[in-house]
Amino acid sequence: MRKNAWKKEQERMKQISEAVKKDQILYYFKTQWPVLLAVTFSGLIYNLGLLAGPWFEGRMTGCLVDILGGKAGYQDMLVLVTAYVMSIAIVQISRYIKRFYVRRFANNVNRDMKEILYRSLVHRSRAELEEEGVGNVMTKAILDVDDCAEGMRKFTTEIYDTGVALAAYVGMLLFYDWRLAILGMLFLPVSYVLAEKMKRNVQRTGAAYKEQSGDLSAATLDRDTNAITYRVYGREEERRQAYEANLTDYETSAVKTNIWSTAFPPLYRIISMTGVLFILYFGSKNVLGTGWKIWDVAAFTTFLSCFLKLAVKSSHAAKLFNAVHKAQVSWKRIKPLMKETTYEDDSLVQEPGTLEVSDVSFAYPGGEKIYEDFNLSATPGQIIGVTGAVACGKSTLGKTFLCEYPYEGRICFHGKELSAMTKAEQNGMVGYLGHDPELFNDSVRNNILLGDDDDPEKYLKAVCFDGEVAEMEEGMDTIVGNGGVRLSGGQAQRLALARTLCHKRPVLILDDPFSALDRKTEEEVFANLRKLVADSIVILLSHRLYLFPEMDQVLWMEGGKVTAGTHEQILEKFPEYARLYEAQADGADAHSTQEGGPDHAEK
Amino acid sequence: MQKNKRQNVKNVRSVIRQTVTGYAGLSLGIVLAVAGAIVTALLPPWILGNIVDTITAGNAVPVALVILYFTFTVLTGLTESLREGLLTVFGQKITHALRSSMMEKYTNLTAGELTKQEPGTIVSRFVGDVDTVENLFTSGIISMFADACKIISILVVIWLKNRGLAIVLLILLPFLYWFTRTVQKNMLKAQIENRRAVGRASGHVPETLHNIRTIHTLGKEHYMEERYDEYIAESYRAVDRTNFYDAIYSPVILILNAIVVAVVMLFSASGNAKVLTLFGMSAGTAVALINYISQIFTPVESLGMEIQTIQSAVAGVHRINEFYALEEVPEKYSGQKTAEPQNRLENPFVELQNVTFAYEDDSRKILHHLSFQVYPGEQVTLSGRTGAGKSTVFKLLLGLYQPGEGKVLIQGRDAFQIPENEKRSLYGYVEQTFHRVPGTVKDQITLYDDSFTMEEVREAARIAGLDATIEQLEKGYDTLCTSEIFSQGQWQLLSIARAAVAKPKLLLLDEITANLDAQTEEEVLQALKRASEGRTVISISHRVNAETGRIIDI
């Protein structure tokens, strides 16, 4: 037992230390070491092996001369040619391995980062997420990781293709004439320093561009989510013009950032190339025997071509800087989202128990009190109806149990204070269904089960939705569309209720779950609800009162005060409640209608 | 005057053509810069040849020649820089034009197509796919053209120097073409798959944000992570396949290069007279040919690099063209005079004449020969069983759909033909749920229409009974909207303010009671009634109160 606990503790510590590292860019290089090892190995073979080509070509030419002169035979050429093809094959296969694994490395990093990012996102509180625009979070998550992984790939590639190759060329130049080599390379640092100076502009315009591209995504998303509203109100032409303005801003910022990162590298190369003036002048002196070293023409051309390759490669290095800068801009934005990767268990479903609420009041941070004097004592199996005028704070009262913001007073379950519980305990105690059914773009089955192992049929029956689902073309496997668009309002509500019932909790908060149902269905669902969650406490927020006589308790909200009692007690005490109840009892719908034929038909 | 005269933009190609001709100066500049970069790059090696010849002859190199060499090197750099800059500007012009025309297309889509689009995919169509088209110009097509020119000129030179080698290359070229096409096709397939997976994965993020409360309370974080991982893994597999083809292409080409060199060497070393008539050459020619062979393979190799860019663009173009093919609303009678509205009280304000309607892809008829009239100032309620088509009647009145048979008339005019700018003053539409737009409280009411005065905005809020609540907000009407600032019922009231601000003659209330308690509903209806005499109201409601007036059964 003890050993086990110790092991667990170890495991936890390990997770924490990993969690700390995941917002370090080095972490990703370290974890990918097997892939990077393959890259290193093949990268070295490839870059050093590049010299094999010219060497063999020279030998073959020499051999041809010998054959023409009768000094060598066909056999010699055959051996040479075979060795040549073999060595090129080895070099090129290494190149394939390097290219493939560098990309796999980027691919792995991309996947890992996105997963961490998503995990971090999905565990964030709603309040936090609200403060950032949807479009921004989206571009952050998708575009930034792509840019960042791409930058890391280029960096890794260039370490071998530029770094190793540069070192080889520099070594060769120094070997031929160290004084001329230093003189020629004097201008390389100037080019680097300039590239470094431009870094700030690259970053600044890069950040501005990211922001514009976030705005553009957000505008596109809005244009699409509210398309019908804009059409019905005749605002489409104006929205189109506003989008056009977005596009113009985007174009300006994109041109700026791209000019900084693409139009400048050729200029850096010009600066690197300045050294060629010295090499041509002093190099020709070397050949003529008046310089620092004695050269033949071959040495002169080799030195010159080495230098030209070096200058081109070093302008690649400037390009590499830009790629790394771009990655840094993205990384800076991702980094704060990459922290905290250890999370507690998702939820600990709790046993039924009694709920004691005393003197609870609630206000949004910095706002006025929404309600006060909330007192309630409930035992398992009770259904409590909550009602009041519009904006009386019903929904806020329901959301109080989610602990998204702190409340005052005491909410005790099993004698334990709700706000003192861990998030997992809270989630295991309270089930919540708000106005928005919050459906997923997935099948009916998956929307109910959300990965659990259960029979969705009985929940569909309980919410009187089984018949309609059976009639759908693909039954339980019908995809409900984004946010449930392919369902009618009433269907979406019932599906969400089925999901809530499938994930039963000892306390269920249902905010107006029947608003789009006709009365007959509502009554049927209500009866099923009683049976199916007989040991849970249900808090039902509603403005339709004909079910309220059946409630075990009623909470009436008026003027910021919450009063608990039976239906009869509240009826007696509050004339407003009586009036609402009477009005609805009189005007009860005779049609048993249910909204939403058309949406339904649109699937 | 109707200004939405439609351009005949039907695909990516036509947009590009229009951009090229629209920015003729820019396009010409690019041609000149590209040609300039090629020519200036040709000169330095020629000068260098002269320098080497001078040294070989044992003479000192004139300083002027050295400077000339460097000057042309600088010119090459400058023209390249210019080319890159112009290409960037041009690429952005193309993306701008593409997005503009796509938005225009989007504006003309039928209501059916609009509801079918998923926000995640629309964003990736407008953002990601268009970006790949931009890459097509900045780093794809133009360098590919330059490479093609190089290949042809080298082939000509080789033909003149060594016919045998030219024949070998000509035999090889079909194989090269086949290999390149195979790589292209497989990459395209993998690219399209990847884009789909990326679309799904990026759609998963907004969905998570939207449903975050459910995910948290049900403790489904882990489940959502797994689903996201699945989408990412799909994209991973597709990208991995793309990477395979991308990585294999160049090495295969270069090994071929070596084999060709080996073959030519072997033949010229054979000593067979017949072979030598085709392959015979001196050592000098051998050196030159080795260079030429690698020069012809280098552009083919960079073609391989450009394939990657072009293929992803083709996948993007493919999907954008799919978008362009979506169904459009038939053009309204623009230019022609639309019928004048009939304002006389004895004429029906709203009239359905023998209307039959079915949604497309659905054989089920929603409305069968439906007829009714609503007269100015009347308040009526539509009622009927589930799926009877109450909301469909609204959609027809709002001009979202056209009836299959019969006529839908507002003030004697075809509802579908009502011009955009007359809609708001003609009718206001209140739905069951409020559609929040990004912006301030005022924006929610006006929907960015600046022609409303502040007084009109306040008046609309007053009608909705929301003025006091809004005044209490820190910045009043200029408060930025987040979902927390109003309760559900208050948002509903706000949608009434949105409908009422233009003082429309007709109000369409769809399930307005669903989220309002009886008292507020009553207040709102009373307020609307007081606010405008003679306003016509049509509502859909479960409850039939005394206030709802005449009932029309569907």
Give an overview of the whole structure.
The complex is a heterodimer of chains A (603) and B (554). Chain A has 603 residues and is of the alpha/beta class. Among the domains of chain A are: 178-340, Up-down Bundle (ABC transporter transmembrane region fold), CATH 1.20.1560; 355-435 and 506-601, 3-Layer(aba) Sandwich (Rossmann fold). Chain A has 24 helices and ten strands. Chain A has helices at 2-21, 25-31, 33-49, 52-68, 74-122, 126-131, 134-176, 178-185, 187-225, 227-232, 236-263, 265-273, 276-288, 297-334, 394-400, 423-429, 444-449, 456-462, 466-471, 489-502, 519-532, 567-573, 575-586, 597-601, and strands spanning 355-363, 369-378, 383-388, 408-413, 416-417, 430-433, 507-511, 537-541, 553-558, 561-565. In chain A, the strands form two sheets. A six-stranded mixed sheet of chain A has the order 6-7-8-3-9-10, with helices on both faces. Chain A has a four-stranded antiparallel sheet with strand order 2-1-4-5, covered by helices on one side. In chain A, helix 4 (52-68) runs antiparallel to helix 5 (74-122), helix 12 runs antiparallel to helix 14 and helix 22 (567-573) packs across helix 23 (575-586). The relative contact order of chain A is 0.07. By secondary structure, chain B is α/β, with parallel strands linked by helices. Chain B has three domains: 1-108; 124-328, ABC transporter type 1, transmembrane domain (ABC transporter transmembrane region fold, Up-down Bundle); 350-553, Rossmann fold (3-Layer(aba) Sandwich). Mean pLDDT of chain B is 80; it is low at 1-5. The chains are: A alpha/beta (603), B alpha/beta (554).
Feature tags:
heterodimer; A: 603 residues; alpha/beta; ABC transporter transmembrane region fold; Rossmann fold; 6-stranded mixed β-sheet; 4-stranded antiparallel β-sheet; 10 strands; disordered C terminus; B: 554 residues; 3 domains; 5-stranded parallel β-sheet; disordered N terminus
What's the SSE blueprint?
The complex is a heterodimer of chains A (603) and B (554).
Chain A: H1 2-21, H2 25-31, H3 33-49, H4 52-68, H5 74-122, H6 126-131, H7 134-176, H8 178-185, H9 187-225, H10 227-232, H11 236-263, H12 265-273, H13 276-288, H14 297-334, E1 355-363, E2 369-378, E3 383-388, H15 394-400, E4 408-413, E5 416-417, H16 423-429, E6 430-433, H17 444-449, H18 456-462, H19 466-471, H20 489-502, E7 507-511, H21 519-532, E8 537-541, E9 553-558, E10 561-565, H22 567-573, H23 575-586, H24 597-601
Chain B: H1 12-22, H2 24-56, H3 63-108, H4 111-116, H5 119-139, H6 141-161, H7 163-210, H8 212-217, H9 221-268, H10 273-279, H11 283-324, E1 350-357, E2 367-374, E3 379-383, H12 390-397, E4 405-410, E5 413-414, H13 420-426, E6 427-430, H14 441-446, H15 454-464, H16 467-472, H17 488-500, E7 506-510, H18 518-531, E8 536-540, E9 550-553
Parallel strand pairs in B: 3-8, 3-9, 6-7, 7-8
Antiparallel strand pairs in B: 1-2, 1-4, 4-5
